[in-house]
Specification:
Blueprint lengths: L1 H9 L19 H24 L9 E4 L4 E5 L15 E8 L4 E10 L2 E3 L4 E3 L1
Antiparallel strand pairs: 1-2, 2-6, 3-4, 5-6
Length: 125
Amino acid sequence: MIEESMKYNDLALLQDPPMPKQEKIPPLVIDTYHTHWTEILRWELDAIVSEKEEIIIWRIAVKVVSWKDAEFVFPVPGIRENHPYLEIGDLVHFREVLKNEKRGSNSAVEGRVTALRKREGLVRE
């Protein structure tokens, strides 16, 4: 019985995380404050970019607003709920898929988001 309680004691959820004894984390003081939070912000922004790169939306109809100004409007499912989270200035890639031939065409278009109409679920490029 004593041996079992010792095993479960090692697996307690509220234990401190194991820290290597050689490394000591420097205290957060005025000199290290900026570096500390800058690095955390960099990690967060990298994660946001990675998430946005993985957004793929299939079978949407793109409406041409103006050929002259190269403006398009397209629906994005979930934009009202902020998933996927898009912002003005985000880069968008369009590629035509030929349904009958079951392959993509060799042309692609790249643009920037210029407006978001979340109530309507539309993005303007």
